[in-house]
Design goal:
about 210 residues, alpha+beta, 7-stranded mixed beta sheet, globular
């Protein structure tokens, strides 16, 4: 899918440009529910464990919903740690997975590898005192469309097929890296300050941005 300059400028303003339902409706709630249906469908997968952030990372406005997927068979575990802290035991697990951004403004998506951390504190009697999850899910325009490793090829094709069945198109990296053909300012934290100051924006920045 190739967007016109007018469409890209509309997306920068937070306006929807898709021609298919529900993106052709002026109703943000319809799109949120649509993406949630995709999320709930992926949650049923026997292959993937899926988490999602619909809350704009806690503040501001994200033009996309972030999905993070790991494998249920545990083969994507990068490291496990266990150590004592006073009277408790801390368990930490690092996993590698796939991060998918589904746009709130058009029926498109992008992906890349990501990392997920899980930390659990357990007391001497085995009671879980706290659990904490951390994600490294920032997709940057110079790091796109990469899988954790070649062993993910089959899983990625299954995931891609499920999402595309909802009419979502994964954009090509070359297109996303093209410079915008017009001058603009995008208040996104996903672009470094140098490019902000010079106004060096790419198609990715107009479609997938987070204002905070």
């Amino acid at each position: 899918m190739i967007f016109t300059s007018d469409q890209l400028q509309k997306m920068i303003k937070g306006q929807r440009v898709g021609e298919s339902y529900p993106y052709n409706q002026d109703d943000e709630g319809l799109i949120e529910n649509f993406i949630k249906r995709i999320y709930y469908q992926l949650k049923k997968s026997r292959v993937f464990h899926c988490e999602a952030d619909f809350e704009h990372f806690g503040s501001g406005y994200a033009s996309f919903v972030c999905l993070f997927l790991t494998l249920k068979n545990g083969t994507n575990v990068m490291a496990k740690r266990e150590y004592a802290a006073k009277q408790n035991t801390i368990f930490e697990t690092d996993l590698e997975g796939i991060c998918v951004y589904i746009s709130r403004l058009a029926p498109v998506a992008v992906f890349n590898r990501g990392e997920y951390g899980f930390r659990k504190v357990v007391n001497q009697s085995g009671k879980v005192l706290s659990e904490q999850q951390t994600y490294n899910t920032w997709l940057l325009r110079n790091e796109l469309n990469e899988l954790p490793d070649k062993s993910w090829q089959w899983e990625w094709q299954q995931l891609k097929k499920q999402i595309e069945e909802y009419g979502i198109l994964f954009l090509e990296e070359d297109y996303l890296k093209n410079s915008l053909s017009f001058q603009t300012e995008i208040p996104t934290i996903l672009v470094d300050k140098h490019d902000h100051d010079l106004g060096h924006y790419q198609n990715f920045d107009a479609i997938f941005y987070w204002e905070d």
